[in-house]
Amino acid sequence: MMRVWRPLTTLAVLALLAACGGPRYAAQPGPVQPTSPGRPAGPSSGGEGLINQRVDDRTMDRITEAGGDYDRCYGQLAAARVEFSPMPDRDDGTGCAYVDAGLVTVDWGTVARLSPERPLLSCPAALAMSIWRRQVVEPAAREIFGSDVVQIDLMGAYSCRNVNGAATGRRSAHARANALDFGGVRLRNGRRVTVLDGWSTGGDDARFLRRVRDESCRIYGTVLSPDYNAAHANHLHLEIREGTWTMCR
Q1: Where do the H-state alpha helices sit in 104-218?
Q2: How far is CA 233 from CA 32, 75, 205, 220, 237, in A?
Q3: pLDDT-derived band of residue 184, with 50, 70 and 90 as boundaries?
Q4: Global pTM value
């Protein structure tokens, strides 16, 4: 009887893959559970979805509640696919200090990128920014300009300095990593919108910027614009609520 020999191609391929550790696939972006030096990683449960909720009159309260619990705060970020790399707590003894802060690297839930990249913010400030960019800045741009935001231009996050950069006086919320300065956006269609050039010009640029300012006041405890003083002529100051005092100008 004739003996039939089967091809060895499949067996050879399987043997090669086994020797190399199996087939390799490109890693896909997904939720990243951050860890903080000296802290165990906490659960990503407990009311996830805050970043993807539309802003309402309770948003600021929800940020305060979530931000008061480190595990819950970064659980919210991880659940929304926002990469947050914790930094060791800092206190230099001069009033510049932050706790539960980190670098906000990539938000996989949006096409908009930050410039400069990797701002250093407290966890509740990172949570507020993630809500703000997804629920305020990007929808406003799509509605008013018909184009996606591809870059959000920042003018400051953590900075060891006084209010308005003065030589004396009280420390700014930037010195606690609790504030962000927003300078403008760049759109997919190539358009650039800045606070400095667009605030007082009228038209769509001014309408967009004022809408961002007004809606930011439902997220942040202190929002300061060019309407407040000349020191804010080129940016919006966005500061999470500390205590009960709020200001929207």
Answers
A1: 123-132, 138-145, 195-198, 203-216
A2: 37, 36, 15, 19, 10
A3: very high
A4: 0.81
Distance between CA atoms of residues 32 and 13, nearest Å:
34
DSSP string, 151-171: EEEEEESS---BGGG-SSSSB
Q: Which of 79, 64, 69, 67 is nearest to 39 (CA)?
A: 69
pLDDT at 133 over 50: yes
pLDDT of 239 > 70? The answer is yes
In this predicted structure, what is the pLDDT of residue 75?
Answer: 96
Q: At what angle do helices 123-132 and 70-79 cross, to 10 degrees?
A: 30
Average pLDDT of the segment spanning 96-121? 96
Q: What angle do CA 112, 118, 124 make, to 5 degrees?
A: 90
